[in-house]
Amino acid sequence: xxxxxxxxxxxxxxxxVALTAAGVAYTVHSYDHDxxxxxxGEEAAEAMGVSPDRVFKTLVADVDGTLTVxxxxxxxxxxxxxxxxxxxxxxxxxxxxxxxxxxxxxxRGGISxxxxxxxxxTVLDDSATAHPTICVSAGRRGLEVELTxxxxxxxxxxxxxxxxxx
Length: 166
Description:
This protein is α+β, with helices and mostly antiparallel strands. Helix content is 27%, strand content 28%. It has a five-stranded mixed beta sheet. A three-stranded antiparallel beta sheet has the order 1-8-7. A two-stranded antiparallel ribbon has the order 4-10. β2 and β3 form a beta hairpin. The protein is globular, with a radius of gyration of 15 Å.
């Protein structure tokens, strides 16, 4: 069952609200975000004491004019060519950060694949299935949710493909 702080009980983020509404079991991990840390994802992994292979970052890319979400391990980077191929596109570039924030409803470093303002096509790196649970942003810096890859897939209907590179 979900562990919830007082903030989540009083509404939470759109991501935790979506998880609760779907009846999905999840655990919230909260930590003090350090704005000077060079990587949001690596900071989360370090703060939680979790392998960076199990912590996934949510990136927004533009694939042939369509904003697309990529969920990849923080231990690596996004392969833009593989992302484009996964959704049948020709070319992918990272989306403008302001457009990504406006479209998802989240701030950079806190973009969650769950509860986005506008549902975008999603690609989940296939390495997620190697873990019993993974962590993704809960919708703000310093807040992660841990859930099974199957539950994340149930809620985001992703294409599963090798889009991360180590």
